[in-house]
Write a structure and sequence with these properties.
The protein is α/β, with parallel strands linked by helices. 42% of the residues lie in helices and 18% in strands. 42% of the residues are buried.
Length: 328
């Protein structure tokens, strides 16, 4: 996909964009489509700000969970909804930049089907290893990986399967350091993290919620976080850019609030400003930080466009180098 002209895909039209229409908004309850199951981190955060949006807009904001198809079912529902601001949805790195490359029959177009509202959360990973390896830093781990590769006995890593964020993150690391580490796919995060802790697998990237307790109990080594900043929940664990001497390293999933394309610009701008206010609330930011996620002050519309384009370039290279284009 050519993201050079992504701005054209995110363009708003003047359909129904009269001041009178915008002043009447919202005229009914709003549906917020969440592409993961209830109780997930994404869902919990969505319910936090949906309550605030409801109070500010004077209408109920109803969360509707539509998991499935690598988050694609939720995206498809938003893409096909009426562009009147009464259906909103959440998308992620997977939805916006990975699925379009890996999926043959994608039923939405991330460039032309959505109007971005706010990029509000980054979801980092922790690079964890088994204590039995003896590697307590990223350089020590890489040195050991190279040694084991030379001995024809490579280290291994766990992920949730080909194309999952953890898989692509580890493959990015392998490309960065030019080292071979064996991929071991798992069906669930708890099983993968448990096998790293027990030493059956050497390492991997994990969501913080799945690994935090084992890290605190000394059953996992936390070598680095994949975000550009430290996590409040893991003070002292350095960002990978610093811990791994890899300037610019940032591998995160992110949450972006979207409306269907052709949603009137005044409505999108109002929702953008509402989200900026809500996500600046110290109570909201603390609750998100306590979950191991990073509340993010949304860029303006041009900034969101540029960020998505840069993420598409980064992840697209990994997917194409692995020859995974069109494999799903």
């Amino acid at each position: 996909m050519n993201y050079r002209h992504i701005a054209a895909g995110f363009a708003f039209t003047a359909i129904a964009a009269s001041p009178a229409f915008a002043q009447q908004y919202p005229s009914k309850n709003i549906t917020l489509v969440v592409p993961l199951a209830a109780g997930t981190g994404m869902d919990l955060i969505a319910r936090m700000y949906s309550e605030k949006l409801s109070a500010n807009l004077g209408r109920s904001v109803i969360v509707e969970n539509r998991p499935g198809a690598s988050l694609g079912l939720g995206a498809q529902a938003v893409a096909q909804a009426d562009p009147d601001g009464h259906t909103l949805g959440i998308a992620t790195t997977t939805v916006m930049v990975v699925n379009p490359i890996m999926m043959k029959n994608l039923r939405y177009n991330p460039k032309s089907d959505f109007a971005p509202i706010a990029l509000y959360v980054k979801s980092p990973f922790i690079f964890i290893s088994s204590p039995s390896l003896g590697a307590k830093t990223v350089p020590e781990f890489i040195a050991l990986a190279r040694k084991r590769e030379a001995e024809k006995n490579p280290l291994s890593y766990a992920s949730l399967g080909v194309g999952a964020s953890q898989h692509l993150s580890m493959e990015y690391l392998k490309q960065l350091y030019k080292v071979d580490i064996l991929h071991v796919p798992y069906k669930s995060t708890p099983q993968a993290v448990g096998d790293i802790a027990s030493g059956h697998v050497s390492a991997g990237f994990s969501e913080i919620g799945a690994a935090l307790g084992l890290i605190r109990d000394g059953k996992l080594n936390a070598l680095a976080v994949s975000s550009a900043t430290e996590l409040p929940a893991l003070p002292g664990v350095k960002p990978f850019a610093e811990a791994g001497n890899a300037p610019g390293f940032e591998l995160v999933s992110w949450h972006i609030l979207l409306a269907p394309a052709k949603t009137p610009r005044p409505i999108v701008e109002r929702l953008h400003n509402e989200m900026k206010t809500i996500m600046a609330d110290p109570v909201i930011t603390k609750r998100i930080s306590d979950m191991g996620l990073l509340p993010h002050t949304t860029p303006d519309f041009e900034g969101m466009e540029k960020y998505i384009a840069s993420e598409a370039e980064k992840w697209g290279k990994v997917v194409r180098d692995l020859k995974l284009e069109g494999t799903l």
